[in-house]
Design goal:
alpha/beta; 11 helices
């Protein structure tokens, strides 16, 4: 069996060079070896996506290579997700939005597809939506979960505004707010700081957490007075700087 890191590196090389036949062959090999679509997503597509985004943020990829990789990877994600097997409906609904970048939508798409396989009724709005429109949709649809994906700090003010306003007006009391994406992985405690109910480092973990009903905090109502320090996240240790500062520095 090919080493996972070697496979990811090989796949990455085909993507950044725009080698469509070679990239399709790698995916084909995974299915021929008996890997289900969910494993191809979790063990190959998602970690390669994270590698591409990390190198892009660090300015270690040319714009052309990044475009080659993201456009080709999206096609392969679509083709792989077409092989997914869907569980019966679990009676839960999810409304999903994400940041405006190509990478944001690509990461969110993998989460959306995996949530559907787990039986969720998913509505995916994509990226670049005004905060008030996302809020309005959450109020109108009253989904069980509002999931927002973000890869950069520029997306945080809008997400924070959505959460704060929803908590202040109490219009969506039953809606659980989940967040995911690179910016939350890079800044410890950020998800909790902005008032999300849960966060996950990958689409697979997001599905697992939602299925188990795990949350690490109840909705917080923003205070206009000086607030007491937030308790440490269940995943992290206390930090001297705020998570929002850390997210900005990690960009």
């Amino acid at each position: 069996m090919v080493n996972r890191e070697v496979l990811i590196e090989r796949f990455f090389d085909t993507l950044v060079n725009g080698d469509r036949p070679a990239s399709r062959q790698i995916i084909r090999e995974q299915f021929e070896s008996g890997s289900p679509a969910t494993r191809v997503i979790s063990d190959l597509l998602w970690p390669t996506y994270e590698l591409i985004e990390r190198l892009h943020r660090a300015d270690h990829l040319s714009k052309l290579s990044y475009h080659f990789a993201t456009r080709l990877l999206r096609v392969l994600v679509d083709q792989t997700c077409a092989r997914l097997e869907f569980a019966p409906s679990n009676g839960q609904s999810v409304f999903v939005s994400c940041g405006p970048a190509e990478g944001d939508e690509l990461g969110a798409q993998m989460a959306v597809d995996l949530l559907e396989t787990a039986g969720y009724a998913v509505t995916f709005a994509g990226g670049g939506l005004p905060s008030d429109e996302v809020r309005a949709q959450a109020h109108e649809r009253q989904p069980d979960i509002l999931l927002m994906f973000a890869s950069g700090p520029a997306d945080l003010p809008g997400i924070r505004e959505i959460i704060d306003t929803m908590n202040e007006i109490g219009a969506c009391k039953k809606v659980r707010i989940a967040v995911g994406g690179g910016v939350f992985n890079r800044a410890e405690g950020l998800a909790e700081e902005i008032g999300a109910h849960l966060w996950a480092t990958s689409p697979m973990e997001m599905v697992e957490l939602l299925l188990t009903g795990e949350v690490y905090q109840e909705a917080r109502i923003p205070q206009k007075t000086t607030a007491a320090p937030a308790r440490p996240s269940r995943r992290t240790k206390p930090a001297r700087e705020t998570a929002t500062d850390a997210a900005r520095d990690a960009a």
